[in-house]
Amino acid sequence: MDAPTKTRPTLDDIRAAAERIKGSVIRTPMLKSRTLSEIADAEVWLKFENLQFTAAYKERGALNKLLQLTEEERSRGVVAASAGNHAQAVAYHGRRLGIPVTIVMPVSTPMIKVTQTEGHGANVVLHGERFDDAYDHARELEAERGFIFVHPFDDVQVMAGAGTVALEMLEDAPDLDMLVIPIGGGGLISGVSTAAKALKPGIQVVGVEAELYPSMKNVVDGGNGEIGGDTLAEGIAVKEPGQLTRAIIGDLVDRIDLVSENELEHAVSMLVNIEKTVVEGAGAAGLAAILAEPERFRGRKIGTTLCGGNIDSHLLANVLVRELVRCGRIARLRIAAQDRPGALAAITAKFYECGVNIIETNHQRVFSRRPAKDTVIEVECEARDSRAIDTLVDHLEEAGFHVDRAELD
């Protein structure tokens, strides 16, 4: 059967894709995490797809697709709609193969992603406010200019390329009995589940979506969860999952878990602090699910893909600091005191006694509900552990100061 009329890849397609892309994408490490395994009370293996040249697994499917174009199709050029990893994958391998590439991105796409994609040689067209607008315009360009459209997930050749991840995972860790894979449009998990179930029929495949974007879970499980919002996992923030992928997932994926924003942030931080690797929110979704509900994974031999590492450095910094707040090492205290000489010195003395470092202070006299003779001193502080700050609060209150502690929502 010709590829354009197929509705799903086979194990043979995935094996052929592995041979086709061999040497042009990185065979990324598959490593057991001793520390995460201890935390989860399971055997946790990580597939470091964030180490691809464009920092995401998307290269596998894009390259497999491009390599199967005819010379005539290559000369016409390709078009894709993406604001992220797919754009860079198509642009990078298109330039390598001498194929003209046009990428349509929403006008709201961060400039760093635009410049990175242009840096790979693509012609970037900014169109529309949302991805759907960019997608529609890309299809219009396909029809008007004769481009070949490279779909980010709903394409058999793209899915087959993504499925090569599973071949490598099971080759490096053949005893795995569960794979935990992020879901956006569904291309990665469709390819992975196809290969894994063919090689090990008893293996479980668990999909993971951001709680704000349960689009595939709604389709497969018949749910009606609301879709939308600002998620750290923008790489899997898909409102309308694939038509081809949903059928494969319905047949081969054992269940779909949802993870909250706090759980995604925690997983990103754990990977930085424990594995010393930078992973974007979507790429950390699998680990987020394992850490969020460890009882569902306890005792299993689990493989999960760190499918991308393209996270804005400022956003990553915020995530890491927020994690320090959650674990109690950074705090913001509002300390009410009488507005008289020596009050601030008495407060800072308590910080010194407890070994807590002051990062920033704000002395507020006017915008406060306290009496006019009182003041509020806001102090952002850090300590070696949460107990030091708890002890500080106790000492301040014992000294007659009223202390409120700011919390993350």
UniProtKB/TrEMBL annotation:
Pfam families found in the cross-reference section: PALP
Swiss-Prot/TrEMBL cofactor(s): pyridoxal 5'-phosphate
UniProt key word Protein biosynthesis: no
Assigned keywords, A-Z: Lyase, Pyridoxal phosphate
InterPro entries recorded: ACT-like_dom_sf, ACT_dom, ACT_ThrD-II-like, Ser/Thr_Dehydratase, Thr_deHydtase_catblc, TrpB-like_PALP, TrpB-like_PALP_sf
Enzyme nomenclature, EC number: 4.3.1.19
UniProt GO molecular function: threonine deaminase activity
Domain ACT: 332-409
Reactions the enzyme catalyzes: L-serine = pyruvate + NH4(+)
Membership in a protein family: Belongs to the serine/threonine dehydratase family.
UniProt-recorded name of the protein: Threonine ammonia-lyase
